[in-house]
Amino acid sequence: MFDYDAEMRFYQPQFRAACGIRPGDRVLDVGCGSGQSTRDAGRDAAPGVVLGVDLSERMLADARRRTADANVSYLHADASTYAFESYDVGISRFGVMFFAEPAAAFANLRRACRRIVLMVWQPRAENEWARAIPEALGGAFRDESPFSLGDREQTRALLMAAGFDEPTFTAVREPIYYGADVEAAYDNVRQLREPGKLLAERGQAALRKVLAEHDTGDGVLFDSAVWIVEAE
Q: Is 15 inside a domain boundary?
């Protein structure tokens, strides 16, 4: 399984701080994956409760294995339609870009959460990893959903139409980590859906070359850029 927690090692501390979770808060973590952000929220919110929700049973099983905090639980559900209870804070680390109907989904989250804090990718052009790896594989990536909230004005309009107040956008730029060395990074890229499919056809040598060019000695690192979006 691709280690998304390792990939986000330079972002997670900043995201955790931005969430501003206080003891006693009730927190909803949307698209929680293997639960790193959920567990961090659980420690900050204690004795408050934290619910992580995701569509992937496999990721949730991993999250449950890693979680010992009594105030943290997980739910297999579609956050865009599920009738949640009320929460003080809704958080999401790269988990809200994939809604089939984003307007309805954010309206649903507005009903559940007094405040939201989201981390989303800025546009593809601002993310070296999203340009260099596809180019090494022939430039054939078609899935733009990871960048669906990258346009600041469109995301602002979407959130305000859902009933949130004027959101704030904080630009953050950090490297993302693909592995300890070229072979580890190659194996990680191979596990991703679109790269894995293309690697079966072409681009293996070119991919190894671009990974080697980004091997810093402290890991294979690519430049990246995100928004931290906050709205009441």
A: yes
Task: Return the residue matching tokens 């340009």.
Answer: 131
Amino acid letter, 71: N
Looking only at the bridges linking them, the beta strands covering 220-231 and 113-121 are antiparallel
Tens-binned pLDDT, residue by residue, of the chain (232 aa)? 667 888 999 999 999 999 999 999 999 999 999 999 999 999 999 999 999 999 999 999 999 999 999 999 999 999 999 999 999 999 999 999 999 999 999 999 999 999 999 999 999 999 999 889 888 887 656 778 999 999 999 999 999 999 999 999 999 999 999 999 999 998 888 888 666 666 665 668 888 899 999 999 999 999 999 999 999 9
Q: How many CB atoms lie within 10 A of CB 164?
A: 21
The residue whose two tokens read 């999250």 is: 63
In total, how many domains does the chain have? 1
Per the structure, the complete domain to which residue 161 belongs is given by 4-123+144-175+225-231
CATH of the domain at 60: 3.40.50.150
The DSSP 8-state label assigned to residue 91 in this structure reads E
